[in-house]
């Protein structure tokens, strides 16, 4: 009995045994608290980000379904080349999100739609001109009520001689206009793509489109107005082809799309388009005044539209005066797109008028 009492007292006062049981209990309580903490953190994380455990859930998660917009302070520098546009930026979009953003409102919406609209307009105008005017007069020598009478006054021999070259230069004009509109709309759609390679090549395509349109715009003018002076015709065509080679090779270098080269690129394209003033002046000098006036007026109107557009774009008017006010509507880049579309349409109709009145131009040398 004494031994039992001693054992009981020993057990009662044994620090080792008490500590073991207490530590076990504390361990269990600590483990339980840890599990509760983890559970709470999971709930908090799930509430904040949504539960994401599989690829399918990732693709359908709120972060991928909502087209979030960002401010200028949240996006990388290559996405904000205009310090006066403060909001409405897209970033880290998938291809599907980029496509959906075409129908959403952000600071690129009107950049996309001005040239998507331009593409559709050119499809209609080009189809009407080729099907209703150019092809019938070149290949069927038809006289219709839509203005082909003048073009059809050329002899069959003359039409045979100029048939394919005429078709080629107008096809180049049409291809350049359509390519410029489509490549521009594509680039502005894919600007926020999460893959840098997609962004870069979309940017390259945009520059290609500009080059194709400028080169294509020169060809009908030079071909028809300098038909009797082959040296001038090929000289001016060679000049624009020289610029065209630069406009194709340049964007293939990474430095071309670097914002630090912006001034150089603007100067290059201004010189490329501005070089058209040389043949325009020559046309005015060599053609009779009654013929050259309408032709030159159309060409000068095109140049003025391009010029005003460049000034608006370079000096970032009007948002430079009211930063943040023109983030979504009527920013300088959007106005630049409108001027480009207007200039391209003016030039196409002017070239079509040259063809319709081809008997007045020196094609029968």
TrEMBL record:
Skewed-composition ranges (Basic and acidic residues): 1-25, 42-57
Residues given in the record as Zn(2+) binding sites: 188, 333, 337
TM stretches of this protein: 112-135, 164-187, 207-227, 234-254, 266-287, 294-315, 335-356
Topology term for the membrane: Multi-pass membrane protein
Phosphoprotein recorded as keyword: no
GO cellular component: membrane
Keywords: Membrane, Metal-binding, Transmembrane, Transmembrane helix, Zinc
Pfam families, alphabetized: HlyIII
Listed PANTHER family: ADIPONECTIN RECEPTOR PROTEIN (PTHR20855:SF52), ADIPOR/PROGESTIN RECEPTOR-RELATED (PTHR20855)
Protein's recorded name: Adiponectin receptor protein 1
């Amino acid at each position: 009995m004494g031994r039992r009492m001693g054992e009981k007292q020993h057990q009662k006062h044994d620090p080792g045994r008490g500590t073991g049981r207490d530590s076990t209990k504390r361990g269990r309580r600590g483990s339980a608290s840890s599990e509760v903490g983890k559970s709470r953190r999971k709930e908090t994380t799930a509430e904040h980000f949504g539960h994401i455990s599989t690829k399918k859930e990732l693709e359908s998660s709120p972060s991928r379904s909502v087209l979030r917009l960002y401010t200028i302070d949240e996006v990388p520098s290559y996405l904000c080349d205009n310090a006066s546009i403060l909001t409405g930026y897209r970033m880290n979009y998938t291809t599907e999100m980029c496509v959906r953003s075409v129908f959403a409102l952000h600071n690129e919406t009107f950049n996309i739609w001005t040239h998507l609209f331009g593409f559709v307009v050119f499809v209609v105008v080009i189809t009407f001109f080729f099907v209703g005017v150019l092809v019938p007069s070149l290949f069927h020598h038809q006289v219709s009520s839509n203005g082909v009478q003048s073009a059809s006054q050329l002899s069959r021999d003359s039409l045979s001689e100029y048939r394919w070259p005429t078709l080629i230069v107008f096809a180049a004009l049409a291809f350049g206009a359509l390519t410029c509109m489509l490549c521009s709309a594509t680039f502005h759609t894919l600007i926020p793509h999460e893959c840098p390679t997609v962004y870069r090549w979309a940017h390259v395509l945009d520059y290609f489109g500009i080059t194709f349109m400028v080169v294509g715009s020169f060809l009908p003018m030079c071909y028809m107005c300098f038909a009797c002076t082959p040296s001038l015709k090929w000289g001016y065509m060679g000049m624009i082809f020289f610029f065209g080679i630069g406009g194709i090779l340049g964007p293939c270098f990474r430095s071309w799309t670097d914002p630090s080269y912006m001034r150089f690129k603007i100067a290059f394209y201004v010189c490329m388009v501005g070089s058209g003033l040389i043949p325009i002046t020559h046309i005015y000098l060599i053609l009779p005044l009654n013929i050259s006036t309408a032709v030159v007026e159309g060409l000068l109107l095109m140049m003025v539209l391009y010029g005003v557009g460049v000034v608006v774009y370079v000096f970032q008017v009007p948002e430079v005066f009211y930063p943040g006010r023109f983030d979504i509507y009527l920013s300088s880049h959007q106005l630049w797109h409108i001027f480009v579309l207007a200039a391209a349409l003016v030039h196409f109709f002017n070239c079509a008028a040259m063809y319709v009145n081809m008997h007045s131009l020196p094609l029968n040398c």
